Amino acid sequence: QVQLVESGGGLVQAGNSLMLSCSASGDSRVRSLAIGWFRQDPGKEPEFVASVDWSGHKQYYKEYLKDRFTISRDTAKNTVFLQMNNLRPEDTGVYFCVSDPRVAHDGRYLYDYRGQGVQVTVSS
Question: Within 10 A of 31 (CB to CB), how many other CB atoms are there?
Fold first, then answer.
C-alpha cells in the first residue's frame, strides 16, 4: 500500500509561481517508485504533467510544459515537488500525484495509487 498526499495548491495570479509537494509513504516500495503529476479539469480526462524516476535523476514532462514546470525529488524525505512558474489561467485544475506512472499500449496512462489532489487556480 502506498499513500500519497499533496500540498501547496492555491489561488495565484497569472505570471506567478507555485510549488506543489507530494509526500509518499507506505511500504518499502515507496523509495523505488517513480512518481508523477497529473492535472484534471472538470469533465475532462486527467492530463500527464511530469514524472520523475526513483532516483530523481530522470524527469519527463508534457512537452509544452517543460519550459515552465520543473519536477524534483527529495529521496531522503520521499517527497516530490512540482515547481510551476509563469502560471497561466489554462493551468487551472486539480493536480494530483501518482505512483509508478506508465503508458499502456493504447497510449493511456496507468498508475497504481494516486493522492486526493489539490486545487490550483490561476486568475488572469
Answer: 12
